[in-house]
Amino acid sequence: MNDRTRAPVDGSRRRLALAAGLGAALAAWPAAARVRGKPVRRRASRPMMGTRVDVAVRGDDPRQLDAAIAAAYGRMGALVAMMSHYEPASRIAAINLAAGVQPVTIEPELMDVLLMARRMSQRSGGAFDVTIGSVGRWHFDARDPRMPEPGYIAAHLRDVDWRQLVLDQDAGTAYLQRRGMRIDPGGIAKLPILAAGLQVLKDHGIEQALVNGGGDVVAASGAAQRPWRVGIRDPRRPARLLGALDVRDGFVASSGDYERFFLRDGRRYHHLLDPKTGYPARGPRGVTLVGSDLASVNGLGAAAMVLGTAGGRELIRATPGVQALVAGSDGGLWIMPGLRERLLPA
Predict the structure, then answer these.
(1) Mind listing the pLDDT tens digit for each residue in 57-111?
(2) Residue 96: which H helix or E strand, with range?
(3) What single-letter DSSP state applies at residue 221?
(4) Is 88-187 a CATH 3.30.365.10 domain?
(5) What is the reported pTM?
(6) Does domain 11-82+190-342 have CATH number 3.10.520.10?
(7) Other CB atoms closer than 10 Å to residue 185's CB: what's the count?
(8) Which residues participate in Mg(2+) binding (predicted)?
(9) So where are the chain's domains?
(10) Is 11 known to sit in a ligand binding site?
């Protein structure tokens, strides 16, 4: 489940700046206790889901903030252990092991994620397919890249079929109908896990909080607080910011061929796989989505990357409540009017 350098912090406005689109890092916030009645700021970073997950919070009680951050990481870690196809004891691993044999009882959180995957598969005509794991494990670490043998991909491509994943909500089970099928939830599980972490922060009484996992940002800010400022990277030139957004509540999610990839024989192999070929999609360079509803945003960027620039735009346009930018492989940049109006100077 392995699927961005920050704009400067404007201290006078008391906002945190970070950039969405490539390996995330929070801008420097002083990790000091409350001074002279000023609100306390806390930030933390931990490796998780093949990336770095950053948490930033603001409040009055340092101990409350620290406890909330620890609880949020605990919750996210538990969900990763449940949903990672790399973890041999995970529920995903159990579903894969029981493929073609029997249904597996799963937790409600995993059922919700798999239902979102099914809906995105239906909406995208199969451009998003959680059973892409059937073609074998790719490793996109540039220091140790690995890919399945072409013969293995060809032999198992028939097993990539989201319609063969049976979800029984009444029984609380998931079942892959053919032996050899495998689920890889990497394109659909990260955002719900980050959202669960944010919910824990809220449950601890934190009104102003942000969770950033590899450029997928989930933010909350109470009516009395200023919004978070999130930088938007240019997928064509990831070192450059296109601008920034003020985000009070919701999601900023980025997908791109520049995030996790390796080069071999002159070709870029990135982590967004096309279910029709079993190889990395040859669609846009990147997609950034902004919305307030998890189910609308989740998986949409991956599907758009597979559909190609034109098909991706069409799917995004048909998704209410979502604004987007798409950087095409031809160097063109498409920004929806609603998002263009919200972009601020970086």
Answers:
(1) 999 999 999 999 999 999 999 999 999 998 999 999 999 999 999 999 999 999 9
(2) helix 91-97
(3) -
(4) no
(5) 0.88
(6) yes
(7) 26
(8) 187
(9) 11-82+190-342, 88-187
(10) no
